[in-house]
Model the fold of this input.
Amino acid sequence: MLRNRERRGFTLIELLVVIAIIAILAAILFPVFAQAREKARQATCQSNLKQIAAGFIMYTNDYDEQMPPWTGNHCGVYTGGAFALQYMYPNLVSPYIKNGVDPATGGLGGVWACPSAKGGLSTISNTYAYNYYSLGGTSNCTGAGLGAAYTPFNGPEFAYPAQLAALGRPAETIMVTDGAQLSRPPVAFVVNGRNAFNNGVWGPHQKGTGIAAPAVPGTTNQNILTMMTGRLTNVAYCDGHVKAVRTMTVISRECVMENGNWRGEMVADATPLGNAGWHRNW
Done:
């Protein structure tokens, strides 16, 4: 006669121990997975920027070694004005970039949207900004350039796009950054009302809390503010190479980010209120 075998399940304590172990492992691994995902997004952003930088260089090869203008409609002779997308630099260099423009809509293609930035925007838009004060021409129509307050980016020298021969240190001169369409040298922060938005530079990697001083308008998109106060920014230089830099090295030293925890750095260069790398011949 077979005897009934005693069956024994897990005790409550054993189950709690297993659950606790799983919770501990999840707490350890989830941040690692998040960091891995962000590293992948950052790598994609750098890849996009590498394509854009190559497009800029190919453009200069076809246009007598002149950098592309930030807009082809400076004088406003075409419908839509200077900021109409079809006239701005993304469309000017799009023939040299795969997926640069969406053929169905005429809008920007995916290469212009950094995965770390586009999630905080209402549409996929241009998330790479041109160093236009120095390279893209500030007044192609009049030839006068900016006023003395913008020193050293003032005058006729900067009225037109830069010639490659005018670049003193191509490998150290900023061409395109993570940012909102047009990036500006640190002097613009002071001249244009000490608003962090005047930097035009984003740090979409290692995002911040969105606290900047002087304070930005209360209506500002909070997602954009977290990118602006992010600690890492991808930069493409005029020789075509791309790397991630600390955001504080490319913004005004007078713009205090993260509630005073970090601010722009002052580096010895030709820009009194700025940092190395912005001036075409610094």
Notes: The radius of gyration is 24 Å. The first strand starts at residue 128 and ends at 131.
